[in-house]
Amino acid sequence: MTHKRTLLTVGAHPDDIEIGMGGTVALHSKTDNVYMLSLTEGDLSSNGTVETRQQEAERAAEILGAGRLQLTWRDRMLTAVTQEEYTQLVQLIRRIQPDTIFAPYYIDRHPDHGDAGSIVKRAVFDAGVKLYPGVDENAHKVPNMYYYMINGYHRPAFYVDITAAAGDKEAALKAYKSQFNPGEEAVSTPLTDGYLETIQARDRLFGKETGVTYAEGFIAETPMLFQQVPGRQGSD
């Protein structure tokens, strides 16, 4: 019987995960337990209200087939989270006991994305500390942690072929109408000026690099071990 894995994906804001790895979430939701956690409600977004963004996030998670989790840390204040807030994340990791955690890569134009990646890395460590104070759940050592890209391009350590899930990713992103297509009265932001097209172009580029139509790239800080030589099969 195949082991059903548990994946915890973490973003600073609603829509971060969908941008960086929505296709991978959709693929794994068909066979594994996948959770999408947003650390903030994106309450400082130029467009859309917290309530609207929560509704959009629920719809996006439904499209991708993942469970959704929400913390209420302050937007743009991730470096000032309280110990109580931080402990919420440690406890959540222990409760879910993921096999793999994904977080935003720390090189990104938006400071919250990099801060989120650093905080999650620290929380993964503390989730495995047996005597860590203020946490009820048993310690859990997360076997794998990887980073996904939100803004920009970085050389991935590995790629996931998301060709079969590209439509689900696109639909999930379009659920965030307040961010990507808010209308003429909205504030102009990087997200309203062809942003979805740039994300699709990056997925196409990663696909081109790996011989598929669409792919998402991930970064690993530790060496990756395989049970056999990885690679694609050659054609006859």
Automatic annotation (TrEMBL):
<dbReference type="InterPro" id="IPR024078">
    <property type="entry name" value="LmbE-like_dom_sf"/>
</dbReference>
<dbReference type="GO" id="GO:0019213">
    <property type="term" value="F:deacetylase activity"/>
</dbReference>
<dbReference type="GO" id="GO:0071793">
    <property type="term" value="P:bacillithiol biosynthetic process"/>
</dbReference>
<dbReference type="InterPro" id="IPR023842">
    <property type="entry name" value="Bacillithiol_biosynth_BshB1"/>
</dbReference>
<dbReference type="InterPro" id="IPR003737">
    <property type="entry name" value="GlcNAc_PI_deacetylase-related"/>
</dbReference>
<dbReference type="GO" id="GO:0016811">
    <property type="term" value="F:hydrolase activity, acting on carbon-nitrogen (but not peptide) bonds, in linear amides"/>
</dbReference>
<protein>
    <submittedName>
        <fullName>Bacillithiol biosynthesis deacetylase BshB1</fullName>
    </submittedName>
</protein>
<dbReference type="Pfam" id="PF02585">
    <property type="entry name" value="PIG-L"/>
</dbReference>
